[in-house]
Design brief:
The protein has 86 residues and is mainly alpha-helical. It has helices at residues 4-13, 37-54, 62-69, and strands spanning 80-81, 84-85.
């Protein structure tokens, strides 16, 4: 199994990644002195909400999505949980 560095190098050599090779990829970022877990929790919650809201059009190309649904600006609740409409 290749390491992440070997895989990245392979992607650059075979032009399978659309990035310019630079020293950025050769150094690890500095270690954080502390982590604000409230921000991490907020990020994860936002990610989960975004996934849920986008599931209907997840694999659609932008033009196909716009043709089928128009411009999406709001979220419509139209499903049932048990007997309750949510």
């Amino acid at each position: 199994m290749k390491t992440n560095e070997e895989l990245l190098e392979h992607l650059f050599i075979t032009a399978q990644i659309d990035l310019k090779r630079s020293k950025l990829f050769d150094t690890a970022p500095r270690r954080l002195s502390s982590v604000n877990f409230d921000r991490v929790e907020g990020m994860m919650l936002g990610l989960a909400i975004g996934d849920a809201l986008g599931i209907t059009t997840e694999s659609m190309l932008p033009d196909s999505r716009k043709q089928k649904y128009g411009e999406i600006r709001d979220y419509l609740l139209r499903f049932k949980i048990g007997r309750a409409h949510v």
